[in-house]
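Changelog note: in this version the structure field was regenerated for every chain. One regenerated record is shown below for reference.
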Amino acid sequence: METPIYEFGPFRLDARRQILTHAEKRVHVTKKAAQVLKMLVEHAGETVFKEILIEEVWGEGEDKGNYLEQKICELRSEHVFNDDPKDPKFIKTEHGEGYKFIAPVKRVGPIEQGAGHLGSDKEMRPLTAVSKATRALAQFYFYETRMLGRDDIHDNSISKWLPNFDKHNVNYSDS
């Protein structure tokens, strides 16, 4: 299995070893911050939901939202990207959703998977339609359980997150 090296601006990320360099000098980041960065870079241009970042980096369990925010601050700090959250060049906050890596990313070459891997060996889940649908259904469930008897609001809520959803024509098959 091969794992790529990514370049963005003057930075380079070795995704296997989770090592960040700037102008060929190693930039010190904590292991968890490197894991967050790896996920964001691997899904550059996509919003990576907070819940997915937390689950992939810290695992399931108690809410670790504050830890995630600390790692995002670490990456934005003057010691790493010197990125202003109000005018980001690398990590953009998608309020109420997650974070998006917005710098252009270039995959410069694969490296062989080997010893010394700091991160998880779990397969990365695609963060596209399935994750967005899962989040939409979770949000719908949240509203459903708190607004009993408000069918008009339920119908509007589900259509907001799943615009092609027709509650009268649900197909539960895989195909």
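Spot check on this record: Confidence is low (pLDDT under 50) at residues 111-130, 170-175. The beta strands are 2-8, 11-14, 19-22, 25-27, 47-49, 91-94, 98-101, 106-112.
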